[in-house]
Automatic annotation (TrEMBL):
It is found in: Cell membrane. The lineage of its organism: Bacteria, Bacillati, Bacillota, Clostridia, Halanaerobiales. Residues 62-171 form the Phosphatidic acid phosphatase type 2/haloperoxidase domain. The keyword Cell membrane applies. Keywords: Cell membrane, Hydrolase, Membrane, Transmembrane, Transmembrane helix. SMART domains: acidPPc. The chain crosses the membrane at residues 31-56, 125-150, 156-174. This is PA-phosphatase. One of its GO terms (cellular component) is plasma membrane. The keyword Nucleotide-binding does not apply. It comes from the Bacteria.
Amino acid sequence: MNRLTNQLLTMDLQLFDFIYTKKRSAFLNYLMSWITHLGGAVFTVVLPCLFVILANSESDKVGYEALLVLLSSHLLVHIIKRITNRSRPYKLLEDIEVLEIPFEEYSFPSGHTTASFSLAITFSFYFPLFSVLFLSLALLVGISRIYLGVHYPSDVIVGIIISVLFSSIIHLLLTL
């Protein structure tokens, strides 16, 4: 098991290094700093609230479902963060320059990725024609978290897994 763990950690660091160092530019720094906010609390909470407040009964159903997925998935994210206490890459690795210091101290799993995928998947259930757009934006949020030096790839992958599970289960339970 220890060998497998070491291999996974090595792959995690190699992928982090590739995303963080290979394609850096002023334009990507700006773009990724902007994209990452699509997974932040302000955007991910306000958007479903707008569905609830401004929409008809079908659209407010989408908003309530998205809020339920966000609430439940983030409860698990914060429990896991407290159990694992994994430090962020910029705190452990050399030559990592962060553009914005995150609010949360711990890295694993990525809350921004979980939030953006939770919304993307929930909205995809209701608006399937836009699912590629939703999921692409969510993936960019996850990549931005690595690019900005605040998450490892495994943090992002686990955030995606959590959001897929919570979005799917809650949608299934609410549509029965």
